[in-house]
Automatic annotation (TrEMBL):
NCBIfam families: PRK09414.1 (NF006929). GO terms for biological process: glutamate biosynthetic process. It comes from the Bacteria. Keywords: NAD, Nucleotide-binding, Oxidoreductase. Pfam families: ELFV_dehydrog (PF00208), ELFV_dehydrog_N (PF02812). The active site is at K128. It comes from Bifidobacterium dolichotidis. Substrate binds at K92, Q113, K116, G167, S380. NAD(+) binds at T211, N243. Belongs to the Glu/Leu/Phe/Val dehydrogenases family. Residues 204-446 form the Glutamate/phenylalanine/leucine/valine/L-tryptophan dehydrogenase C-terminal domain. This is Glutamate dehydrogenase.
């Protein structure tokens, strides 16, 4: 419940203006509920309208993306780029291609990104973009034509010092390659305008692994500090089987856990022997196949229709890595009833507000997305640094920096939580620590 008068007033304005943008409202409410304690000590935030300005993107670009499919038919999708906040650096955030993409989804992701980027300690503002384009079942040539059309408009709005997009759902190395190629061709400029690039043209080692690895470094550190525990010997449930999920499974396994599930939007597999990553990577990364094929290839595994059932599998640690609102209150309760004591989020906003309430009332170690999955954008920030100095660091160098960043996110979140009277609360701490840096920069730069 909101109690601070200023916070309540601004939230009411958001409800009135953007009441139809459900996911955006959910993200704003979650942040507002947790940052209330800072306003007593910082009257300057209200005086300079920080919250009113924070909830209004600096710019929203919405555009037509026309392209021709392999049968010669014209297709039209919608493209978006939300440039949310540039107080601490150029806008930075991924592009998502998925039929569920709407302005509300991109706004929630862009809003979250502001605080996430701030938490990394790197100079990056918040942005997000994408399209309702569905690449499933499309040929490489169709994906290329779509990406070229998308970038033909997007290039007007981005640049290495303005806005630097990256990947997200269904935007991986292939799509970033096509997008980068079109940007370079239209602008006649080779610059670090996108991250997640191929290693041959300015990409950073460890970027592919960064979100999943970072999630596990974060979880390991939070377990160490708060529970004097680790991944060793734990049973882990992971949802998803994309970029974040695969490398979360890899790192959790390296850290001594047994990961027994993977899923996609159709269903999930359980492998009591631990997911065989060679097989999963071959299916998802080489063949762009479905998770059900895993059970056809691995005799110890079983496939179950319906992706939400994955939360009924007994585990010690849950790492959601698929999409938003993938765990509701009942599913959270099911996890806890089955002995789960740790939930750290690889996907953005995977837990509904009811699920978060269940974690809180059951003393679950809860690592919120904007902290736990910040490793991806952190290494994107390191890719920007490498592009600027025209040098490439080794895998181990970037990996060590990533680990250091994730450990400081845990430390900074816990310090902020303690300072504002919520010791041990990683969610409250992350929101407060991420917010204060941005708010101070906004105050210093005047009313813009
Ligand atoms: P991918 O496209 O690589 O994988 C997405 C996975 O989630 C797939 O297994 C997909 O299954 C599943 N999925 C997508 N939508 C749904 C849905 N509506 N219901 C059930 N399952 C679904 O994306 P990423 O791994 O990159 O992203 C996963 C999450 O992590 C997203 O929330 C993203 O915002 C977040 N994230 C990603 C970062 C990155 O660096 N890539 C950084 C920080 C956060 P299917 O194949 O059936 O669609």
């Amino acid at each position: 419940m909101l109690t601070d008068e200023y916070v309540k007033r601004v939230y009411a304005q958001v409800e009135q203006r953007d009441g139809d943008q459900e996911e955006f409202l959910q993200a704003v409410r979650e942040v507002f509920e947790t940052i209330e304690p800072v306003f007593k000590d910082h009257p300057q935030y209200e005086a300079s309208g920080v919250l009113e300005r924070l909830v209004e993107p600096e710019r929203v670009v919405k555009f037509r993306v026309p392209w021709v499919d392999d049968e010669g038919h014209v297709q039209v999708n919608r493209g978006y780029r939300v440039q949310f906040n540039s107080a601490i650096g150029p806008y930075k955030g991924g592009l998502r291609f998925h039929p569920t993409v709407t302005e509300a989804v991109i706004k929630f992701l862009g809003f979250e990104q502001i605080f996430k980027n701030s938490l990394t300690g790197l100079p990056m503002g918040g942005g997000k973009g994408g399209s309702d384009f569905n690449p499933k079942g499309r040929s490489d040539a169709e994906v290329m034509r779509f990406c070229q059309s998308f970038m033909t408009e997007l290039q007007r709005h981005i640049g290495q010092f303005t806005d630097v997009p990256a990947g997200d759902i269904n935007v991986g190395a292939r799509e970033i390659g096509y997008l980068f190629g079109q940007y370079k061709r239209l602008r006649n400029e080779f610059s670090g305008v996108l991250t997640g690039k191929g290693l041959e043209f300015g990409g950073s080692l460890t970027r592919t692994e960064a979100t999943g690895y970072g999630l596990c470094y974060y979880t390991q550190e939070a377990l160490r500090v708060l529970r004097h525990d680790s991944f060793k010997g734990k049973t882990v449930v992971v949802s998803g089987s994309g970029n974040v999920a695969i490398f979360a499974i890899e790192k959790a396994t390296q850290l001594g856990a047994k990961v027994i599930t993977a899923s996609d939007s159709n269903g999930y597999v359980v492998d009591p022997n631990g997911i065989d990553l060679e097989v999963l990577k071959d299916i998802k990364l080489n063949k762009r196949g479905r998770v059900s094929e895993y059970a056809e290839r691995v005799p110890s595994a079983t496939y179950h229709e319906g992706c939400r059932g994955v939360w009924s599998v007994k585990c010690d640690i849950a790492l959601p890595c698929a999409t938003q609102n993938e765990i509701n209150g009942n599913e959270a309760q099911m996890l806890i009833d089955n002995g789960c004591t740790v939930v750290c989020e690889g996907s953005n906003m995977p837990s509904t507000p009811e699920a978060i309430e269940v974690y809180k009332s059951n003393n679950v170690l809860y690592g919120p997305a904007k902290a736990a999955n910040a490793g991806g954008v952190a290494v994107s920030g390191l890719e920007m640094s490498q592009n600027s100095i025209r040098l490439g660091w080794t895998f181990d160098e970037v990996d060590a920096r990533l680990k250091g960043i994730m450990e400081s996110i845990v430390a900074n979140s816990l310090a902020a939580a303690k300072k504002y009277g919520h010791e041990g609360d990683l969610m409250q701490g992350a929101n407060i620590a991420g917010f204060i840096k941005v708010a101070d920069a906004m105050v210093a730069q005047g009313i813009i």
